[in-house]
Amino acid sequence: LARSLLRRNLAHGFSALAVSLWTVFMLGAWIYLPRLEPYRPVKRFCRLIEVQREAEDTAGYFRTALPSMVFYLKQPIFEEYDVEGMKRRFLSGKRVFCILTERDYRYFSDNQDFNLYILDRHARFSIRFGALLNAGYSPGEELLLISNRPNSNASPSEDRSQS
Predict the structure, then answer these.
(1) Confidence band (pLDDT; 50, 70, 90) for 163?
(2) Which DSSP letter does residue 38 get?
(3) Residues near 118 by Cβ (< 8 Å), separated by ≥ 6?
(4) How far apart are CA 146 and CA 80, in angstroms?
(5) 3-state class of 41 per DSSP?
């Protein structure tokens, strides 16, 4: 690239830059991302949802970005960012599985209109560098998998102790 710029051959310099960037992006997709995926909680949460899910149940996330849930669950998911919309989902007749932050769970658990049950928790792990620079991002904050119905595989006393 430097040699092309010194010789004022901009077309060759652009090609060298494009090939270099493409190589870096492909290496990231083939090496970097698959190595980091086991540390993200999404796959584990989706396995739990698969075990407990019935046909009419819905799954998704609230105020976080986890589009890989579609890949793991092989079904459409909801992406909710509105508090009132999420409350409507919890109050619906359907069982809802939702991944959200601990802070958002505390907000919803203070609402007395419905009960929420923690099915699993995992430390948040972000592979986006921008998230680490975000002042509102807390690396120690946990992501929770919650539901508006108790865990069908556990006794009611176990579920109440988790909510």
Answers:
(1) very low
(2) G
(3) 105, 144, 145, 146, 162, 163
(4) 14
(5) coil
User: What are 6-58's pLDDT values in tens digits?
Assistant: 888 878 778 888 888 899 888 877 887 677 777 778 888 999 999 998 888 99
Query: How many angstroms separate the CA atoms of 89 and 103, rounded?
Result: 19
Asked if 148 contacts 90 with a C-beta cutoff of 8 angstroms, the reply is yes
Using alpha carbons, select from 55, 53, 105, 59 the residue that is nearest to residue 78.
Answer: 59
Length of the chain: 163
Integer Cα distance of 138 and 115 in angstroms: 26
Query: What pLDDT score was predicted for residue 155?
Result: 41
Kindly state the tokens that stand for 1: 């690239």
Q: What is the pLDDT of residue 77?
A: 92
Q: Following CA atoms 119, 120, 124, 125 in sequence, which dihedral angle do they give, to the nearest 10 degrees?
A: -120
Q: What is the pLDDT of residues 60-86, one digit of tens each?
A: 999 987 888 888 899 999 999 999 999
Residue 120: CA count within 13 A, CB half-sphere: 17
Q: pTM higher than 0.70, yes or no?
A: no
Contact 105, 146 (CB under 8 A): yes
Chain centroid to Cα 106, Å, comes to: 18
Distance CA(74)–CA(134), nearest Å, equals: 31
